[in-house]
Amino acid sequence: MNLVTVSGPPSSGKTAVILKTIDSFQKRGLEVGVVKFDCLYTDDDILYEKAGVKVKKGLSGSLCPDHYFVSNIEEVTQWGIKEGLDILITESAGLCNRCSPYVKSVTAVCVIDNLSGINTPKKIGPMLKSADIVIITKGDIVSQAEREVFASRVNTVNPGASIMHVNGLTGQGAYELSTLLYDEKVEVKTLVGEKLRFSMPSALCSYCLGETRIGESYQMGNVRKIDMEEKKKRS
Amino acid sequence: MITIQDIQQKTIADLFEQYPFLPGFFEENTLEVDGQINEKLDDFLNILDDEEEKENRAMDKAQVMESMAEYITQMLAFLGEDEDEGVNSITLLPGTNKSGEKEEFEELTINKSEIVCIVGPTGSGKSRLLADIEWVAQNDTPTSRTILVNGEEGDKKWRVTSGHKLVAQLSQNMNFVMDLSVYEFIELHAQSRLVEDVEGVIQKIFEQANNLAGEKFSLDTPITSLSGGQSRALMIADTAILSKSPIILIDEIENAGIDRKKALELLVGEEKIVLMATHDPILALMGDRRIVIKNGGIHKVIDTSGDEQNLLSELERMDNVIQNMRTRLRHGEIIRQEDIGF
């Protein structure tokens, strides 16, 4: 199974980009699953269900969403493998700009939009700076010059990333993105022992103390798990 | 290629002198130099060795240096590019339509300063064609088309590097969203392109934009308060002169507040390859050729005939009639029978 982490500021178009990309994966006959992480509420899981993919959601509630994410990523990975997925995409909103959701060996995608302002790239930390691929959305409604300036600012803070423009409405660029995300030679079996690309913002668990390793034995204090059991039918 | 070893022992002052674009990197990465300009980069970045500082800034010394070396490498490559390495032509080789049938053309080469229109119903595959060009398709997209640049297999650098986008886009839905004056806006774009004569470029774009716009505007006008026609005039002039992309894709140009003929002349004069999705007869006939898309594939390629070109002047006369009426209305005048003139 391939694993991809998609992150980005709220309302930047992550779900739209993922849905369009899933379309391309499905045309190639790949089995796709999505785990949506959010804070208080999301109904994006319904959109994913409609798109015909296996989906789980996790709400972090009072916890730091980043810590919640890393505390659950191994279980999520095992769920994806059990479901027989070819590719599992995790989607999480970077609710604070200090977010650092990427695991070293897992393809990291940051979605950021042209409307967020040209100073935004400088404000976002590891979520943008350590991504492998940066997707810029909403390019269809701003001028060419603003697109170019924005992309060059992104390039300045993360020169190593592939920068792509994807239109979440029409799907322009989504096929191309799909070719960068799936590699049939890659086989993720577990993330235990893997490390984060950068330490997460502090809260009150083992990760607050700088822990970067993944796996239950490294987790202490305030750790909360997603219920990975099959849920009852929605009433 | 610049490595960490090349930069870490140099002072920041030396680095800034050697790489004039580097202060921008410090600025965007929120590294304040202040009084430490004569420190070695390695020493300056030691601040990030402090665990608390590292956590609070979310920056790692090694990662910042690596990033800086990569940035310098990219910028030097960008500055070192010759005009000769530019794109003189793109060539389309056929793929298949949605039914899997081969497209109905053999080879289509579009040279710079040429205008090619793209026509076809909604959903026929216009966007896919443009996406294939932008991605420099190499028989690896759903249409199986191949796009050649200067007659050769395209370099994959066009796909994902921010400084090398093959296609610049202009469409009706685009707006300015920054809170800047016209002057500041062009200045910002010119700086991001590392232009040397920023002042000259600002003047040139400003003059050209006003030459295209129906109503004049000034350099201190906020870009968000320009009219639709003025905005498009500025976008076209700016894209023609400042964008590095050799291909300009235009999705219709609304017939109001802008001289469309001059706009196309400007793009052609700046040696762009112009692709225009339009069903406006005046624009379509200004093109040298038009690509007809049907069922996801190129159905035919039509050269604009002499007869059609003759019709163009007639169409332009009709268009002028409407434009003149518009002007009369704007000035509070009465529309008369003789204004129609035929």
Automatic annotation (TrEMBL), chain A:
Pfam families given in the database record: cobW
InterPro entries: CobW/HypB/UreG_nucleotide-bd (IPR003495), Hyd_mat_HypB (IPR004392), P-loop_NTPase (IPR027417)
Record-linked Gene3D superfamilies: P-loop containing nucleotide triphosphate hydrolases
Span of domain CobW/HypB/UreG nucleotide-binding: 4-164
Name listed for the protein in its UniProt record: CobW/HypB/UreG nucleotide-binding domain-containing protein
Organism: Marinifilum caeruleilacunae
Automatic annotation (TrEMBL), chain B:
SMART domains listed in its UniProt record: AAA (SM00382)
Name under which the protein is recorded: ABC transporter ATP-binding protein
Keywords per UniProt: ATP-binding, Nucleotide-binding, Transport
Family: Belongs to the ABC transporter superfamily.
Origin: domain of life: Bacteria
Domain ABC transporter, first and last residues per copy: 87-320
ATP-binding recorded as keyword: yes
GO molecular function: ATP binding
Pfam family for this entry, one: ABC_tran
Organism: Marinifilum caeruleilacunae
InterPro entries linked: AAA+_ATPase, ABC_transporter-like_ATP-bd, ABC_transporter-like_CS, P-loop_NTPase
